[in-house]
Amino acid sequence: MTLLNILHYPDPRLRTKAKPVTKFGPELQQFAEDLLETMYDAPGIGLAATQVDVHKRIIAVDVSENRDSPHILVNPELTLSGELLETEEGCLSVPGVYEQVTRVDHIEVSARDPLGEPISFSASGLLAVCIQHECDHLEGKLFVDYLSNLKRTRIRKKLAKQRKASA
Ligand code: ZN
Q1: N or C: which end of the chain has fewer CB within 10 A?
Q2: Count of domains forming the chain
Q3: pLDDT score, position 60
């Protein structure tokens, strides 16, 4: 098991649009396990490959209390439905920052697992929000993009200060 290095905002590599996975199998399975382990270690409830500088369409999510219900989604496609829901989001690439973001509260997910088997399920509430957040990463989008310019500037300053303090 390898812990992967997580990129931090405003690293330009977080803006890369991920490519669809075409090669499934043990190698991808190994990467998926590393991604999941990195997420648990951080600790976080979701991590996209983009955040560890791997630009393939793969995300790891686990919103369960006991950290025992992981979803590994390869080439995820979402159908959004339901009501709008405002929740507080955070991101392992934007450490220490939590802001309200509005998303839909219900999604239909279709994806593949790392071995290429199709997966489909519906999700609501926190799981739905988390999957939407991670899929945004694959498009090079961050949750801070939903905030005002002023808030984003404040966040960049805060993170720069944190980096200085820990350097
Ligand atoms: Zn994130």
Answers
A1: C
A2: 1
A3: 98
Residue 50 contacts residue 16 (beta carbons within 8 Å)? yes
Token code pair at residue 120: 């489909």
The answer to whether residue 70 is domain-embedded is yes
Q: Which residue of the set 99, 117, 134, 139 is catalytic?
A: 134
Residue 146 has which token pair? 């939903």
Is 134 an active-site residue? yes
Distance 9 CA to ligand 1 centre (A): 10
Q: Count CB-CB contacts under 10 A for residue 20.
A: 10
pLDDT digits (tens, 9 = 90+) for 117-159: 999 999 999 999 999 999 999 999 999 999 999 999 999 999 9
pTM: 0.96
Ligand 1 center to 92 CA (angstroms) = 6
pLDDT at position 1, please? 80
Give the residue among 67, 13, 45 at the shortest CA–CA distance from 133: 45
Q: What is the CATH number of the domain that holds 41?
A: 3.90.45.10
Q: How far is the CA of 7 from the centre of ligand 1 (A)?
A: 10
Closest to 110 measured CA to CA, from 149, 83, 78, 134: 78
SS3 141: coil
Q: pLDDT-derived band of residue 11, with 50, 70 and 90 as boundaries?
A: very high
Q: How far apart are CA 5 and CA 7, in angstroms?
A: 7
